[in-house]
Specification:
The chain is built from eleven helices and 16 strands. The chain is of the alpha/beta class and about 325 residues long.
């Protein structure tokens, strides 16, 4: 038997290893009450920003989703793909027109949107998750009538402006998602949606056209329809700031009423995300989070640690009681 003499150097190394192991154990124990609370519930995660284009962050995100699955949470991933769409439009030489800072989606551009979201981004994410096992199933808002949308425009200088094939989700049929969850799989949803003829006619008849819909608001609609315990939106900032760009004003948690009061004063880029959070809370989702997708495993830190790292939106006190 070969024995190693105990020296100050290897004793210190052993102590460091023990401390690291203890820290890991403490983190797991801290996560336990959160795992107990959310096990068996559905969590909707909107995937986007740097987490979508950085290889290390993409792999970390896939690991997070598999982790959630294995601790008994039912993750549902909703994704957009703006950077990939821009890249493909450029490669194909398709020029984009912008009105009020928003892209006009022509039929030609919509073909690219559909191809990139469902055929590229969604497939890549399914592959990353499935590198850990046969978990993920890709689908789009077109599948099984999952999403229904109506066209939306914008207002520029007081005038209504047509943005082409751009829509807003007005209905969700969650049965296709529920079937996948019941089979023990993870749905990965791309955000294109059939255009319905008339939101008010109740028939859900479609025009035969497909619309590009905002992934933040689509994720909120899906979370509401599923009765999710959480909506988590990955973004490229640390969270919501009370006084942007003062980073010391990061808000850790706020109520729906507090957010509603803040919305008119927010930077334009945060408005869709915070509006999505507010919609989800107003429609019964227990918690909504804005999380910095530039930090690996940020979603787990926000979900399973007491302090969290992003911004959490919760119902008003009277709604909780």
């Amino acid at each position: 038997m070969t024995m190693t003499a105990r020296t100050p150097e290897n004793t210190a190394t052993s102590a460091d290893s023990a401390k690291t192991a203890q820290d890991k154990a403490a983190t797991l124990i801290e996560a336990l009450p959160w795992i107990q609370r959310f096990a068996g519930t559905t969590m909707v995660i909107k995937y986007g920003g740097n987490a979508m284009v950085n290889e290390e962050l993409r792999r970390a995100f896939a690991e997070d989703i598999v982790f959630l699955h294995h601790v008994g949470i039912h993750p549902v991933v909703v994704h957009g793909g703006g950077p990939q769409i821009n890249s493909m439009l450029g490669r194909l030489g398709i020029e984009s027109e912008f009105k009020g800072g928003l892209r006009v989606t022509t039929p030609e551009a919509m073909d690219v949107v559909r191809m990139v979201l469902t055929g590229q981004v969604g497939r890549e994410l399914v592959g990353l998750i499935n590198s850990h096992g046969p978990y993920a199933v890709g689908m789009s808002g077109e599948d099984g009538g999952l999403l229904r949308a109506v066209r939306t425009g914008t207002v520029v200088d007081g005038e209504e402006v047509d943005l082409g094939l751009v829509g807003e989700v007005v209905g969700v049929d969650p049965r296709g998602i529920e079937d996948i969850l019941d089979a023990g799989r993870i749905p990965v949803i791309s955000t294109v949606a059939p255009e319905i003829l008339d939101e008010g006619d109740g028939t859900g008849s479609t025009t035969g056209q497909v619309l590009n819909v905002n992934a933040d608001t689509a994720a909120a609609a899906v979370a509401s329809a599923l009765g999710a315990s959480k909506l988590v939106i990955l973004t490229d900032v640390e969270g919501l700031y009370a006084n942007w760009p003062d980073k010391s004003s990061l808000i850790s948690s706020l109520t729906a009423s507090e957010l509603r009061d803040m919305l008119p004063r927010l930077e334009s880029g945060m408005i869709p995300k915070m509006t999505a959070c507010l919609k989800a809370i107003d429609e019964g989702v227990e918690q909504a989070h804005i999380v910095d997708g530039r930090l690996p495993h940020s979603m787990l830190l926000e979900t399973f640690t007491t302090a969290g790292i992003g911004t959490q939106v919760v119902p008003d006190e009277e709604e909780v009681n």
